[in-house]
């Protein structure tokens, strides 16, 4: 993915007050608690079975299945972005025929790898995630509210902007859509102690994030939950609603919401590649510091303390790292990227 799609920040002056930060944290906590209960009921009460009288199967990928709410086309309701000036916490009536999509199934891998792929609180990690998951076309970090810590490495709350690769966007039939939204991630627990990872994306507006010329502001609400249910098997559950704005065909809303839900199949691989890149980078740094008078760990040649030898074996390590990364399809990770 071209880096210049992530080089532009259309709202570089966005700041939030302490009061707005508290409002955002409370808003996210409320959303997460509500949808977390929905997921726990789906597991404990519904035994992970979909009510097909309400939900119609739409698309599957691997062992992930997306369903469309049969009632959404008749609800007459849509969702709008949250605005700190009005403190509206919930979706409100706006436009008819906004599809609501449900996803459930499993992904191969481990929860920690998957969550490492989910968390992207910096521009570097946002770009890397997009290169594997293909969930957005371009984007920017507008304002961090909560960032990961050593104690809570998967917890984050970041205000972001993005554009998506919508169907027919390259033609004159569909204008570019963009989103200003909050993205929150973290770990919760079921009553029985099971760890559950979550990811939330929900539209938000500020006075200084008005849509740019020739761009239509769209709204979204997206939730995902992830839980290890067997060795190398992660349970995946989530919902997605996209209101693209303007006069646009319904299938585009359905397509965008569905692709967002199915992108979860790539999250484990994304997390593994981020870890591989980080490990290779740090191993190379340690090698340069500690292996001046030992055999090179990459080519096993005897090293010396001379500058020429040091340069040669540093080059060897870099070539090996690049070769390994290419064989795995790894994206470059900058030295500052840690999560």
Total of helices = 6
Main beta sheet strand tally, sense and closure:
10 strands, mixed
Q: State the total count of DSSP E strands.
A: 10
Structural class: alpha+beta
The figure for the number of domains is 2
Distance between the amino and carboxyl termini? 19 Å
Proportion of strand residues: 25-35%
The percentage helix is: 25-40%
- In CATH, what is the homologous superfamily of the largest domain? START domain
Radius of gyration using CA atoms only: 22 Å
Characterise this structure.
This protein has two domains: 3-267, START domain (Alpha-D-Glucose-1,6-Bisphosphate, Chain A, domain 4), CATH 3.30.530.20; 273-328, no CATH class. Helix content is 31%, strand content 26%. The chain has helices at residues 18-44, 111-118, 123-133, 250-262, 267-290, 307-328, and strands at residues 55-61, 64-69, 100-108, 138-146, 156-163, 176-189, 195-203, 215-217, 219-230, 233-243. Strands 1, 2, 3, 4, 5, 6, 7, 8, 9 and 10 form a ten-stranded mixed sheet that branches. α2 (111-118) crosses α5 (267-290). The protein is globular and about 70 Å long. Mean pLDDT is 81; it is low at 74-78, 88-95, 313-327 and 334-339.
């Amino acid at each position: 993915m071209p880096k210049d799609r992530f080089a532009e920040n259309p709202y570089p002056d966005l700041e939030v007050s302490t009061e707005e930060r508290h409002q955002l944290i409370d808003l996210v906590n409320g959303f997460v608690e509500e949808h977390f209960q929905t997921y726990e009921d789906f597991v404990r009460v519904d035994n992970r079975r979909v009510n097909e009288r309400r939900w119609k199967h739409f698309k599957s990928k691997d062992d992930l299945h997306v369903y469309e709410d049969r009632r959404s086309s008749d609800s007459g309701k849509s969702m709008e972005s949250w605005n700190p000036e009005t403190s509206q916490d919930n979706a409100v009536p706006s436009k008819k025929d906004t599809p609501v999509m449900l996803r459930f199934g499993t992904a191969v891998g481990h929860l920690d790898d998957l969550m490492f792929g989910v968390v992207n609180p910096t521009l570097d990690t946002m770009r890397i995630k997009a290169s594997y998951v293909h969930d957005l076309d371009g984007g920017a970090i507008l304002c961090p509210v909560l960032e990961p810590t050593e104690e809570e490495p998967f917890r984050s709350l970041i205000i972001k902007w993005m554009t998506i690769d919508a169907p027919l966007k390259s033609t004159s039939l569909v204008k570019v859509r963009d989103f200003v939204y909050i993205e929150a991630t973290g770990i919760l627990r079921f009553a029985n102690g099971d760890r559950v990872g979550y990811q939330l994306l929900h539209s938000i507006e500020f006075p200084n994030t008005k849509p740019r010329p020739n761009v239509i502001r769209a709204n979204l609400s997206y939730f995902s939950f992830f839980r290890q249910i067997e060795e190398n098997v992660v349970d995946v559950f989530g919902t997605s609603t996209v209101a693209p704005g303007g006069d646009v065909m319904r299938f585009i809303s359905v397509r965008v919401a569905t692709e967002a839900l199915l992108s979860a199949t790539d999250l484990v691989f994304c997390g593994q590649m981020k870890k591989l890149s980080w490990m290779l980078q740090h191993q190379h740094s340690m090698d340069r510091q500690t292996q001046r008078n030992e055999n090179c760990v990459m080519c096993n040649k005897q090293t010396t303390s001379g500058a020429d030898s040091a340069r040669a074996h540093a080059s060897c390590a870099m070539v090996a790292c690049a070769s390994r990364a290419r064989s795995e399809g790894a994206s470059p990770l900058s030295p500052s990227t840690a999560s």
